[in-house]
User: Fold these one by one.
Assistant:
Number 1:
Amino acid sequence: MIAIRDDRDRNAFAALFDHFAPRLKGFIIRSGAPAHQAEEIVQDVMLTIWRKAAMFDPHRAQVSAWIYQIARNRQIDIARKENRPMPEELRQEPGSEPDASQILGLEQEAGQLKQALSRLKPEQREMIEKAYLGELTHMEISAQTGLPLGTIKSRIRLGLQRLRHELKDLDQ
Amino acid sequence: MSAITHHPSDAMLAAYAAGNLPHPFAVVVASHVSLCGQCRATFEAHQAVGGVVLEESHAVPVSPSLRENLFAQLDAPFAPEPVYERSGVYPGPVMEAFKGRAPRWKTLGMGVRQDILSRDVNGSVRLLYIPPGQAVPDHSHGGLELTLVLQGSFSDETGRFGVGDLEIADEALEHTPIADEGEACICLAATDARLRFRALVPRLLQPIFRI
Ligand SMILES: [Zn+2]
Ligand SMILES: [Zn+2]
């Protein structure tokens, strides 16, 4: 993803496509889109990834998390014909050095999260999938306990604090 | 800026990250996340879970033409979507709902003003301007009401709410928010059902006429 962002590397983008496009298609079909529309959405999402690559910040998000958000945005924009409200972006300090330990930490936390999900009972796992496919309201999510968040929250928060120190204009 | 003490619930942030909050509530939650580092971290954690769900999705082969079409478009010119940034007390998502304009206040009486950003079957989202010491009429709720303070502060039966604080009210709460002394209070308020105002006059007459 960094090669796509910084070097506009098409081979890297092709590899990303080969990995994510079929998963995106499966994900989109599961959330109710007919197969032909699913391919259109996959194409839109992949094009958005290419065009918005400069926004990707590996200190704060895994590639899969970033793509997940783009895919949900696209699905919602199509379903509701209005733009989904998103928070203001945190801007990266231009030329700020990548913090390898922060990026690695996030990767490790995401790996643990993946393992935690794989250990769930099938019914629990299905509940999680439904929640993140947008099939549960917040009331229904409230009724479900134990979304496996604890593992990665602290790490993402640390990254955020680091960023906030760098972004002096954020907290006027 | 004083610390934010009232936040959306984790379940609400999860539903927001999954794109499953009705539009008026999504505007308010997006605005809160824009102001609140703690909720941004939680929101991003939910995105990470969504990413794992995506990553682990059953792969369905895509047609070869999709790849060709996509790569043919990579160099095509495109108009980037407008990015709305914070302006004064209004965070980016409010500016987006405004399409970049300034608020157009309409007087509601007693110095209270409002500007309705959107209203449809999903509910409404509006800005409220409440002068210091002034109350929003006593009311109960037909559904959910989210109120985010953008300037000043207000207090009601449940506590005090300053800049960035989010009050969540539902059917169970009947309250009278009063703007604190000092600066006028500006709030972003979303509801998914009509508020039930208890007009002052009918209430006074209630014991006599049993309305
Ligand atoms: Zn918060
Ligand atoms: Zn209320």
Number 2:
Amino acid sequence: MSTDHANVIPSYMRVFYTLCVLTVLTVVAAKALEFPHTWGMIGDILHVTIGVVIAIIKVMCVMYIFMHLKFDNHLIRIAVYVPVFLFSVFVFALNFLETWHYTY
Amino acid sequence: MSVGLSLAHEPVTRIPHGKLLMWIFLASELMFFSGFFGAFIVLRNTNYDVFGQGSAHLSWPLALLNTFILIASSLTMALSIYHLEHNNRGLFRLFLGLTLCGGFGFLTVKWFEYSAKFYDGLFPGQEHHTIFFSFYFLMTGFHALHVIAGMIPMGFMWMRSFSKKGYPFPRKVETLGLYWHFVDLMWIFIFPALYLMIPYHAAIPHH
């Protein structure tokens, strides 16, 4: 690891506050955000999409700063970002296709 | 001119072996949890009412508290590594101890959550058990086991930090830190999936 050359504590604190705010935002989006019932299952897809997008932003924050990908070898960065991207596509696509299949 | 074969144990990637192995292990863990999430999504979308009623039965404020505990423990873990690298033994011990407390806090909240489910007659593997609670106990149970698995070496490192020499292996603490952050990452997905994303049009009885 190469945090020796830099004071990373302010970055850690910023990530911590960002994670707290995004966690509150996840709850608010899930509990308070209402879509018109005429939208049908699109409302459910939007709810899930918002939740997953916030979760992915949180995950990227943790990996980039807390797990030191910012300071790490580019090989590790590629090896981590590609599976996370594929995992996100998997969650999005599966949810969208399944909802679509059982609704229409 | 022949090139001699070097058998020296040098990491060709310039990434320490322990750290590289931990990343490979975490990749396998990601696949393990992907299976859970894939099955969860498919079954959720074919059983809206069952998943809606199950999700509405869970206590999201307790899960939110656990989320904050894990986020805070991720911060203290990162701070403990920073202070060990800068040879601040006291602060390393303090922050690693706080991370350990975070793990205990998480498990305590989980204990209360499970107790409430058991009190309501919801156990894993019951015949009348809904598919939602099978997922709930499986995903949160495996996650809690991961927390315990992280706390064991962490406790050992913390105890050794009280010795005269302190804990002299920052790379090992960093590798454990990767694991601990991964446990936090998985909870970041489990929390909204199980507790918050109640299917929009599920028929949920009002008590």
Number 3:
Amino acid sequence: MYRYDEFDETLVRERAKQFRGQVERRLKGELKEENFKPLRLQNGVYLQLHAYMFRIAVPYGQLSSRKLRQLAMIADKYDKGYGHFTTRQNIQFNWIKLAEIPDALEALADVEMHAIQTSGNCIRNVTSDHLAGAAFDELEDPRPWCEIIRQWSTFHPEFSALPRKFKIAVTAATPDRAAVKVHDIGLLMKKNAEGEVGFEVLVGGGLGRTPYIGLTIRDWVSKQDLLSYLEANMRVYNRHGRRDNKYKARIKILVNELGEAEYRREVEEEFANQNAWEKVVLPQEEVDRITAYFAPPKFETLPAKSAALDAAIAADRHFARWTKNNLRAHKIPGYTAVHIALKPQGVAPGDCSSAQMRAAADIAEKFGLDDIRVAHEQDLVLPHVKLDDVPAVYAALKAADMHASNAGLGSDIIACPGLDYCNLSNARSISVANEVQALFADPEFEDEVGTLHINVSGCINACGHHHVGHIGILGVDKKGEEFYQILFGGRADEKAAIGEIQGPGLRHEEVAPALKRVISRYMELRISKTEKLADTMTRLGQAPFKEALYASA
Amino acid sequence: MPLLKDGKVVDDVWAFVEDGHELSPGGCITVSLARFLSEHDQLLARNRSIGVRLAVSDDPALLAPFLDQLHLIELQFPKYTDGRAFSQSQLLRRRYNYKGEIRATGQVLRDQLRLMIRSGFDAVMIDEANAEGVYDFSAHEFSEFYQAASDTTDTIFMKRQKKREEKAAE
């Protein structure tokens, strides 16, 4: 994991001090809310329905036990004892007092964390594959480049008042677990014809009101040119992105209005015109220094199979189910990655109590090489666990009530906070997610259904990524009443696709029964258990599922 | 409203002349980009200081052939969330090597002064009673930067490199 040096440390300390000054001016009335708003937003502070919300950056989703324990401390001291992990690998606290946020920022700086650029019209927290460094299917570890992008984008003097927010994701693996095709810029590490590793650059993907899949603007850019090429994209966007309408201000609209070819031409021209002063080239020693922090940990030489694990699986069917659903293949024999699904039945997806944070920190320290990731599915992941230790990890998770065995299945739902917390929302998300989860209360049934991604957003801003769920649920307001539109066919992986709205919205209580009919139809029609709902829909079209959706008795 | 040049309050000797209005016989004047481009021969032939006021959507590249004869370029912040002038300023300083004054006008708030200074502005019109104090505070609020910009190339990345080289030399 990257460690701050004196320079990184100085910056986050100065930032905390700066925000303390701004909050003091605000509380004294010297700073109007209107002018304070963009300042607090760039520190992750939103004014929500009931209170201020504070969003903390978890760069590329990586935590250590020390960091996670500090988040638990913040949950206890400044909030109501829990936090909420987000689809952008961050954590939010929903009940914090404005006057106490500067203290919380200081506490974060103590563990090399911050809330810089977690909101506002700037370059946001860079996200990545939660299995980076552990996955057997990655070309190389993308995290050094995530950290380099984090540093380059922090307080960028030219790009701190963009037309709209800007999200960058990086992956080096197929399948794509970082959803790079639905980001403002997605970077996919790949080799060119000469075998050199660089980046494919996708631009203009995104969800929200107008969902788009990102377009490949450059098939390959070298590591050395990466930051300069990003600057060229950012400058074209900053100068030409729309500012007349906030709903048309994301880069996807610029790319769409200019057209792919013209956008590419402008970026290439800008890139070609950069002089030596404008190029952003890191010394190779600096790239090496940052990369060294992500060197593989000292893995033991182990057999590929664990007799202890196999025996435990044979002895306990609950444990057997959890291992089947929550373990992910690791590149080193004898190791596995463990999904801690933060989606037990009836809880807001992504919520985690301070006690659970401490439990996860303890487990990671004892069994997980002190590495914890936040996955964009709002789960936690222990990327490096010995197969031999899996039974002990399960026991410890069970003691903390973190042993939901539904990772990647129907009840592992992505949902935004919805009308219960958010002042943008039109409809409740958590309650509808909970009712859908209840369809999968029987583990045997849930396993029988298999991999299924259901995503819920409470409004068209799409924080719950409803466009890219196999089944998407979108809350809308019709004359003061909540309705839910259903989308089919979305996916966020390397075959990324935007789901299609099926028809009229359903009432809150109609959603779960309607989806039950859709899932039954899917189980009748699929050719095998491994055919995902999205694939069955591709094969047969959406009509049979739409028919089931609206076939109320 | 106070005008700060390099952080000190100075008198504003410049006057903007609207398109279509006659130029006064003397003094320092700024005109729009359109007017400058159509009348630059006459404007630059006079024995006076000429500046140009750019709108946020104007392309600074159009001024490139004339930059060594211009004394002032005014850039605008119609709202302080509109950051297009940051790109214009960076282009003028770093790509076209403009050495004259770059002035920020419009909604200039103390909390963006650091970004402006970094992007190459050396003058700001700012509605603050203690303008010099506010400027001095904002200019020194942060001591380290990751990005090379118009004010410095001494970035954190370069400082780290220097430290490595010093260590290697020992």
Number 4:
Amino acid sequence: MDKFVVLNPEEELRLIREEILPGFQPPEPRFLLPVLHEIQARLRYLPLEGLRAVSEYLGLSAAAVWGVATFYPQFRFAPPGQNQVRVCLGTTCHIKGGEAILESWERELKIKTDETTPDRLFSLERVACVGCCSLAPIMTVNDSIVGKSSPISVKGEILKAKTVRGPKTQTNSNDQ
Amino acid sequence: MKKNNNSGSQKAWEQLQKRTNREISGKPVPEIRLGTATCGRASGALETLAAFREEITRSAPAARLLEVGCVGHCYAEPIAVVANPGFPPILYGPVTPGVARRLVRDFLGEGDPCLEFALGAVEENEKIPSVFELPRFRMEKKIILEHAGWIDPARGEEYLLRGGYRGLFRALGMDPRDVIREVKAAGLRGLGGAGFPAGEKWEICRAFPGKTKYVVGNGDEGDPGAFMDRALLESDPFSVLEGMTIAGYAVGSHRGFLYVRAEYPLALERARTAMESLRGLGLLGKNILNSGFDFEVELARGAGAFICGESTALAAALEGKRGMPRVRPPELAEKGLWGKPTLLNNLKTLAAAARILDQGSPWFRSLGTSRSKGTAVFSLAGKIHNTGLIEVPLGTTLREVVDTAGGGVPKKKALKAVQIGGPSGGCLPAGLADTPVDFDSLKEAGSIMGSGGMVILDEDDCMVRTARFFLDFIQKESCGKCAPCRIGTYQMLKILDGLTRGKGSDAEMKILEELALEVQQGSLCGLGKTAPNPVLSTLRYFREEYEAHYREGRCPARSCRDLIAFYIIPEKCSRACEVCVGACPVEAIAAGAKGIKVIDQEKCVKCGSCYQDCPIEFQAVIKVSPPKTGGK
């Protein structure tokens, strides 16, 4: 079981410089998105200093890298909680009450969407559509997809994450 | 077997066939194929998989267990096909872990096919009723999804065994121009939404000079409410890759990009595995089938931007830039990726092209209507019994899709509208249910075919709220490059926001309509141009519903939360039942005098859980709009 690893900024930067970037040869601007994906897959977020290293490596301006990274909703710039909750708000989830489920999470975790709980156990995001509409409303907790969810089932998911699933979230596999 | 005038590939092809045939010959063993695509997983397929594995080890060690994709019947997930020698293969669903254990023990072990869990046999036979007697199976015509859910998406051999790659083999023996002629003759139109003739696109791309050209498979299925491309990639990535290779050969390209949205991790994983398998079989990479033709495909992952479904924005994303569209022309076919001619097709179009090359254009032309040939894949979701994926000949009516394939609207509710084409499409009212589903009929009715997302709305769904939902989506996804889309959709959203809260005026309605037309005409790309469609189509068919919101503060569908309230009718409430108390996420319901439940209106968040869960024999919870009157 992998432990939830938090790296310090120097280690993060070393990982990006020495393990991630050299995998993209030759350095070309077109690798920007794959590089960002890879960093986020390993670190679960994009550290600012890391982006600077990316811009130097790919020969792009820091502004260009920042512009691209902030354009795409997939990327985040702060580490998420140990359990990542995503609530689907696609068309079908919308008509089947996805909003009420998102609100239920906000209420139970006492945070707003796109925030992380102070104990770093949970972070909450909305997602445009996970393409699982036939089982709406959908929420995902880490890697598991929960179909036909309801506002009350949120409480059970929190309990499950705290007990069964626990803080065993892997550092690198749940952010694909 | 078809002859190929390229002798090198003829030999390679024969060897490949021999090799795959050798793999399956031998003593037949019991085989279980479990659908573990995303929708299956959401229904617990992984738990079922574990149960199968455990029970097979214990009581039927000879049996094979395979993970496959999705046959399209999401309502019955998890789905498994069990092939036990001596019986026809049987389709089961939903297969819970308990059912899985019984199937291994009782069916594989003792020969009892447990028909109580079966949907039917998947082959016509004399023993067991077959699924083809079900209306949905009868009306479907699977071309693009022909192999989805039946083959192991990790092994190219399985695709070959079912006739895969015959299309490419045939194409490699033809002049590339004849390949294009074949696709043109078939009348295949782009299945990504706009319906541009595919063969023509290929021809245009081929005509532009240049040694370097690219082929892009557009799997950036961003429409909320659509999941056809996901299911196709998770179930049968080979058809897409075969189509891409054929397209590459036809237009003179040696390099393809398969662009898949990041929200589909399993689709990405399965596409990657499939590509490795094809490389091992000599069907991808250098010198494909010993024909001298090279074609390599790179998998690219999106990053959550809806706009990247637009071809020029997708090209920008592949180049590592922000996914912003540019003015067209020049089209991608002329100046695409890195300025080179680029052919971009939807994944379903590519898969259909592979079939056309295999079976010939006359066969394909025999399906569909006079102007829309072939089939269309739809994802059915929303207020419908049998959700899932369906593939029907173009020209099938909406009613057939909803009633026959979908099994109608649940809970005896009335069909209100069908939303087609996502944020770019429109809501067609129940009155237009006899509209044939094809490119031109849908456009005439104020919607578009789109990529194929179909969401069924019933009487409880508010059209104003639905329009607001799409505008909210578009507003968030607008890339911001052009003002009509960036600012126009924002202003439209503000008006719609007000309407769902009961605020608005005739003057604002007029502004809403004017803005809709201006955004439609003034936007740079397809996203903006089609963004007003949900508003325009609902205004066209459901204007009185808009008016009720701001004139009476009433939501006729009782859906807009600011305009409704929930009450429990004391006479109907069963005192012994506590379902609503348990369903309420905010503890707003408590038993009052004599055990009758009462909703605390201050605490109520209007999520509707009590309304949904109150047992049908009581139906004690009512929804009223406007909230102040009528409810007591």
